[in-house]
Amino acid sequence: MSKQIPTPKGYPFIGNVLDVNPDHPQESLAQIAESYGPIFRLYLPAERIFVANYALAKDLFDEARFEKAVTGPLEQVRNATKDGLFTAYPGEHNWEVAHRTLMPAFGPLSIQSMFGEMQDIISQMVLRWARFGPRTPVDVSTDFTKLTLDSIALCAIGERFNSFYHDDTHPFVSAMNNMLAESFARSRRPAFASAIMKASSERYQSDIAELESISTELLEARRQNPVDKKDLLNAMINGRDPKTGEGLDDDAIIRNMITFLIAGHETTSGLLSFLFYQLLENPSALRQAVEEVDRVLGSQPMTVAHLAMLPYIDACLKETLRLYPTAPAFTLRAKGDQVLNSEYTIKDKDCVSILLARLHRDPDVYGPDAEEFNPSRMLPDKFNKLPPNAWKPFGHGVRACIGRPFAIQEAIMATATILQTFHITKDNPSYQLQIRTALTIKPQGFKIRTRLRNPSFLQGVELSHSSSSGTAASSKTPSRSHAVKEGNSEPISILFGSNTGTCEALAQSLASFAEENGYVPKVDSLDNAISSLKPDVPVVVITGSYEGQPPDNASHFMEWLASLSSGGLIKVPYAVFGVGNEEWHATYQRIPSLIDEQLEKAGATRLVTRAAVDVAKTNCLDAIEEWQEREFWPALQKQSDKSSNTASGGARELKLDISTGLRPSILRQDVMTAQISTMRLLSKPGTPRKRHIGIILPSGTTYRAGDYLAILPLNHPDVVHRVMRRFNLPWDATVVIDGSKSTSLPTDQPLSVQNLLAGMVELGQPVTERQAQQLAETIPDKIKSDELKERVNQGNIHKLNTTLLDLLEDYPSATYSFGQYLAALPALHLRQYSISSSPIASPSPSECSLTYSVIDAPARGSSQGHRYLGVASTYLERLQPGDHLQVGVRPSRSGFHLPIDNKTPIVMACAGTGLAPFYGFVAERAVKKRQGLDVGTALLFYGCNDPDEDDLYRQQFDEWEHEGVVKVYRAYTFASKKSVNCKFVQDRMWFDRKDIVASFRQGAQIYICGAGIVGSSIQKVLVKIKAEVADCDEETAAEWVDSMKGERYWADVFA
């Protein structure tokens, strides 16, 4: 008996239109597939069936049973291209004639003959990037669109659009872009709406007429001035159908000219854009691609012979098309009643759309890592073993893309040339993929920076103007790093690897002391420093580890460093300052240690022994100040024969010009504007506050359960006002910071002091011993000055987390200036919170929630009775529904997501608001279970204070338990009698260890989330359980637990 195809409940007249976000339809359809399974029916309002896995899709590729359906945006494009190759209806005679006539023009020899013209256009783009230099961001979608459009125009019809030489666009290009945009818009609205929108309809027809007019001119020009060239236009003019002997009339030629210019650039530009995003997200793949290019091409120009010698580049392209098929779906129509996989009946003439991104990520075909970018799976030996029709980015059968060889050759050439010529990095290291959907899909807002690997590479290129120097043009885009200035000072490179901003703040702190020691600092991320380490230029690396992995902006540097040969960094003096948390002993200081070892192995000269700072025990800023004063600068002085000025005693001061009246707002980067939708208190009033906040992300923003949301907060107004009062600043004061001193703050422009204090510096940062000593020197009363020095010597300041502002209030007579105060503060950094929702369980896929504790307690370091107010948590608490905030989605570490296979059991352990990601996990599984999907067992071990105070989301978890989605094991610290005498989550895990063991034996994945002490305690109890089960010692058990990390054991631990 045939199964019923699931259908989400719709609305009268409009059906399921509201279930699909018109700006991001593919994401919406993927979410529906997650909820309803691999086949579902929607009414949009016309009926459409969607298929999202291989088992069901494979029957659709039988051309005797299904044929191409021209629907949606493609049917609207037909207004311009009519029966052209891509928009013809099945059986149209002109399509058959054109297809047979033009097939030879896309044969291997014909495509190879276009190599020189493709190379011409690629060189234009490369030269443009080289001239603008590494400080100018490149919008990859824009430039790759110019590249692919100019290539198809030159190769197919002999026309040069010269997109890289003009700010304005060619009239054909403008008309084409307008036509495509309106075609897509028409596909989303009822036919009557387009009929009454006269202005847009007139523009639409005008654009189509422009395309036809220009195409006619090009055709007539070729007829009047024929050329002996085997391009597409000559094939259309002179070719004959080998079956009927017919040629193409002028109307057919014009329709197909327009067709090829559209199809020949849109998909390939998207492919290249997604490829470079994935390469920059996957350092190992980027390294292998560069190595292959270097091995095959070296420094020589690319030739046709090289095309077949780049299998890894080809695999990268195929893998990109697997994950991001730029034409993300195609639709087939049933030829008679059909049955899919012996399960679902498809009626005659029913339309079925194949969601390629889901077909290509089917774990039954591509394995458990189907969501990951892994080009090796697309190398010839593995690619050829894929099931038939499991990879279909170019369509299917007789209606498959005729231009596939053209697209692949062009993409290989462009990729190899770029990798041969440039080092590439993200413009914004924290950029996460956002997809723009029109006729095809492309990354939105993705920019890169390019730096020549060898500046002399381009000197051999013959330029049309021989007088050109070929040097990179200066950019108006300001660099985030300190520029090296001219004069007697020498350069020093300070490199950081940082996800949360801590190591970047340490790098800025070190830079602030460089100038007084005779060095001009350049501060940058490790990834931006690839191949830039120079002999005799000191390098300081400041970085931490994240579960033993490098920070996001250091992974490419690690790959590059590992690839260096012995002696590759001769005469490079270096020092490493490592940051970590010793509670995670297995991975503590792993990345700093590895960098230190590999730098030495490559021939660099170690200045001082690697510093290792435990953030759980030490004030990082204190530590780096002590390290640089006692070890680093003296060692560098000895190495370079410079005199050190670190003991000069006076606090560094910024030169300020304070005025009133101007209050500009300072824009911040790397975040986007979101809006608060809901907020509520979760804990009992009068107890430590734990809160829930709902956030509406910008349309099209995607996330997965387990990801983070980074918040750019504002300091609490009470703290800002304390600073203003201490320095006697009026409420509307502005300040201009002299740019002659290095600082992370904007210089040489008026800034509102309130805005600066609220949004640009860390006011709650614990004061360092050096800063406190410098403050003491500015107190005119010797008794008070000595008192502060004694407080510093006794260590009380560090123990109490005293801030610089606390001390300034304690010693109001100090003459410490506002400029000194600003110079002492690190830049305000993002705070990351685990998202506590799932996109498929939220009101819309772009809505998420956070679950957080409000930090609000007496300030131990303040003698004035002030409170310690957590910057981000109190900021979130102050917001109201409708308010806006700056956020950014950040992916969690690789495996901290639900298993791809819904049937895989999971064990979760957490305490307090560490529950956040698991609330999202269970919510997602609940939705899937309600839709009839088979989900694995879920065990949740949760620790909190008291069932009547902070048993978060209790009612919702009770409902999910009743539905059989999860089983919850609780531990109440202050009411342990209500939790089988278990006070902490690790106690409850030990008490119910048999359930954990049983679930693990069934293939469970284990997840833990919480503060560092919670994470280490949970790990210890897992070791204890393993030792008991395996009857082994705890050392052996600990090794086994460590071996499970990254495979079946995932941790998200925060400070």
Automatic annotation (TrEMBL):
The keyword NADP applies. Its cofactor is FAD; FMN; heme. Residues 462-485 are annotated as: Disordered. GO terms for cellular component: cytosol. Pfam families: FAD_binding_1, Flavodoxin_1, NAD_binding_1, p450. It comes from Fusarium proliferatum (strain ET1) (Orchid endophyte fungus). The keyword rRNA processing does not apply. GO terms for molecular function: aromatase activity; flavin adenine dinucleotide binding; FMN binding; heme binding; iron ion binding; NADPH-hemoprotein reductase activity. This is Bifunctional cytochrome P450/NADPH--P450 reductase. Keywords: Electron transport, FAD, Flavoprotein, FMN, Heme, Iron, Metal-binding, Monooxygenase, NADP, Oxidoreductase, Transport. It comes from the Eukaryota. Its EC number is 1.14.14.1, 1.6.2.4. It catalyses: an organic molecule + reduced [NADPH--hemoprotein reductase] + O2 = an alcohol + oxidized [NADPH--hemoprotein reductase] + H2O + H(+); 2 oxidized [cytochrome P450] + NADPH = 2 reduced [cytochrome P450] + NADP(+) + H(+). Residues 464-478 have a biased composition (Low complexity). In the N-terminal section; belongs to the cytochrome P450 family. Heme binds at residue 401. Residues 669-899 form the FAD-binding FR-type domain. CDD domains: bifunctional_CYPOR, CYP120A1. Residues 492-632 form the Flavodoxin-like domain. PROSITE patterns: CYTOCHROME_P450, FAD_FR, FLAVODOXIN_LIKE.
